[in-house]
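The data are quoted verbatim for completeness:
=====
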Amino acid sequence: MSFVKPRQIFIQGITNQGRAFRPSDWAERLAGAMSCFRPGGGAGGISAAIGYSPFCFPRVIDGVKCVIVSEKLKDIEPMAWDFVLNFARDNDLVVVDACLVPDKPAEPGGSAPN
């Protein structure tokens, strides 16, 4: 049995001309708009806590604000996938295919690497 990880795209907060995208909280706003697209949907009650979707979330990578979008979002809601891609295109943002690599865990008896 082989496991294929869904593709991820990184929308970077830099325009194709190299300028920083504004407003400075754009990544949090975009990911917040996609927060209801999650496993189990936008359930109410205790599950309605504020948080980002595992399919679309903000990160700062090498000092650049990004939104990481999983291709699984396209399976859940194609219009949401189109929305984030059109957002990037309309704002002339850099988009790259990549894979978020988790931080290396701390060594036993030691501290996490820098």
Residues 8-41+48-98 form a domain with the Alpha-Beta Plaits fold (CATH 3.30.70.2340). The mean pLDDT is 83.
